[in-house]
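Hello forum,

I keep getting stuck at the same step: I have a sequence, I want structure tokens, and every attempt I make locally crashes halfway through. Rather than fight my setup again tonight, could one of you with a working pipeline run this one for me? It's a single chain of 216 residues.
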Amino acid sequence: MSKKHVGVFGTWDLNFWTPPEEVFRRKLEKNPIHPFSETSPDHFEVSLRSPWLWVSSVCLLATFFGTVGYYVTNPVDQFLTYFVMAFMVCLYATFVYSDVRRIVLDMTRNEYEFHTGNRLVYRGHVHNVYIRLVGQKSGTGDTYYKIVLNGFHVEEQALTSSSIRRHKLEKLGRKLAARLNLNYFDFVDESVKHVVRHRCPYASPEESVESLSHIA
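Reply #2:
Ran it on my machine without issues. Output:
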């Protein structure tokens, strides 16, 4: 199977009329290991863009037009310097986040890799990368949940948009983690719903449990 490349919005749910859990379910029907592709037996890869790329790009455009507009309508003064500095910061941020991020899961060796562009950022044991249900309370008191892919030296990637239907997202997240043979963590740190398939191979059983609690 060919490698899967996910664009800036590739893992986002841009359908505002369909519940996020339903969008995610349909994606998993088309590709049971979404957003990954199996490039060889027990070897999964996904390439994606940083979610901060579009933020820095919007800021870059805003500061560019702001700088030009201020230069045209005002005499050159110290405030123009601030606009130019802001533009340079946004330009640098856009450059930093423009590189494609690539996550490789090699389950035959129980290892994962995180690449930025052509640079290997980190290679480690697979217990340090996981699927998790995360949540955040809104001003109305409701808690909105989403499924994320995260890990040590891995940039968190939201696999769904936010939904109040916790149990449906949880079921889909657990299925995805099982298909990828990854650890799954529940919203709360201490939960019977954690599914720990891999523990730290370098630590004692007690230290391994403690390290997992820090990750979760």
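Strands lie at 5-6, 37-40, 43-48, 101-106, 111-116, 119-125, 129-137, 143-151, 154-158, 183-185. If your local run keeps crashing, start a new thread with the error log.
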